[in-house]
Specification:
Blueprint lengths: L1 H5 L13 H13 L4 H11 L8 H14 L24 H13 L5 H8 L3 H10 L17 H18 L7 E10 L30 E9 L2 E8 L5 H17 L10 E3 L9 H10 L4 E3 L9 E2 L9 H14 L7 H13 L3 H20 L10
Parallel strand pairs: 1-4, 4-5, 5-6
Antiparallel strand pairs: 1-2, 2-3
Length: 381
């Protein structure tokens, strides 16, 4: 019998609940342990050796019930005298629930913590009321700026790309999507995506805002199921360097791709100043006559005009750079060689199957953008 009384477990594992005095001791010890339920369970077991030993979940449940309706006894075991005199359970109080719903209707951007303070209702009651009424907290999606003229330009681009894809199913396999991106030591470490599991808080840290800084600029191209690069570009990038790269190196890089025919390649880049300089446009018209996508000037115009401020339509932006940064910023970067190695390793991990998915995603984005009349699409993906 003594062993049975000392065996820990939750309320649902027993026909007889703990006594009010036992629950009160649990809550009291939880306060002593500053809300650490596992530590509270350990202290309880040491302090009350001859009583049943609750686990941490039992202690948390007792505390939650106390906060919600002022009663530590599980509802299934409450008799007529177990409720608080003259006071109904809060979670059955329709007026309190309506107050919660009215609060989110008036201010959809509020938080449970704010409502807890303003309405003077327990956190868990508000949380349950929202859940039972299908009220969910949705995150904002960051999107790029669009100017009034951009909507028509984006629609025109999507319509023309879809038309060519419908005419030639292999059209996208010949489009060389390109972009440049700079990687630094302190660029991105998303604490929401990185965790350290342990029984106790190890208080892990990651150093940022280093005084010693370094960075590297990369050019990358994606054509079919192949990646060209990453290629080192200077910081800052100049139109002279960029045009020389196109003239002297790009043809060789493309010719090294299996089954790629230079004469079929359609070169794409955005409207960055280095891409629209006269010297760059001259090279493009010479290398890719009638076969480049971008923004032209005067009589030097692309076969398809790239819409301004549209990174959500470039596979490098909506896939490649995000993939690379997620891999390289998983922990602290030591030096420039470490950064370069991580970029190369992350790029090598991209498979042809992944690039096939990217093309399907690209077509999906074109259609969605067209349905949105050229508007933002990231929040719907």
């Amino acid at each position: 019998m003594a062993d049975q009384r000392q065996r820990g477990g939750g309320d649902h594992q027993r026909h007889v609940p703990y006594t009010c005095r036992e629950y009160a001791a649990m809550v009291f010890i939880l306060g002593e342990c500053h809300g650490n339920a596992r530590e509270a369970a350990r202290v309880y077991a040491q302090r009350y050796e001859n009583l049943r030993h609750p686990n941490h979940q039992t202690i948390l449940s007792a505390m939650n019930r106390l906060e919600e309706d002022g009663n530590v006894i599980p509802r299934a075991h409450r008799g007529p005298g177990h409720g608080m005199a003259g006071r109904p359970d809060r979670d059955r109080n329709g007026r309190d629930e309506e107050r919660v719903l009215a609060c989110v209707r008036d201010n959809p951007q509020t938080s449970i913590r704010k409502m807890e303070s303003e309405l003077e209702l327990p956190y868990h009651f508000i949380q349950r009321a929202l859940k039972q009424n299908n009220q969910h907290a949705y995150h904002y999606t960051k999107v790029h700026e669009l100017r009034p003229a951009d909507y028509a330009a984006r629609s025109l681009f999507c319509r023309e790309m879809l038309r060519r894809i419908d005419q030639d199913p292999e059209f996208l396999l010949n489009v060389l999507f390109t972009d440049e991106s700079t990687f630094g030591r302190d660029d991105t470490f998303n604490t929401h995506n990185h965790h350290h599991y342990a029984e106790e808080n190890p208080h892990v840290t990651v150093q940022t805002k280093h005084q010693t800084r370094f960075s590297t600029n990369k050019w990358v191209g994606i054509v079919g199921n192949n990646i060209i690069g990453p290629i080192n570009f200077p910081i800052p990038l100049t139109s002279v360097f960029y045009s020389n790269f196109l003239r002297n190196r790009l043809r060789i890089l493309i010719q090294n791709i299996p089954d790629a025919r230079f004469g079929n390649i359609i070169y794409q880049h955005d409207g960055a100043p280095q891409h629209t300089a006269d010297i760059t446009l001259d090279v493009l018209d010479n290398l890719f006559p009638g076969r480049w996508i971008g923004q032209g000037r005067g009589d030097r115009q692309p076969v398809i005009r790239w819409p301004p401020r549209s990174p959500d339509l470039n596979p490098l932006d909506f896939f490649y750079w995000g993939w690379i940064k997620e891999k390289i910023y998983c922990n602290e970067i030591v030096n420039i060689d470490d950064l370069e190695f991580r970029i190369t390793a992350a790029a090598a991990a991209i498979t042809p199957e992944m690039l096939e998915d990217v093309r399907r995603n690209f077509v999906k984005r074109l259609r969605l953008c067209l349905r949105r009349a050229g508007g933002h699409i990231e929040q719907y993906l």
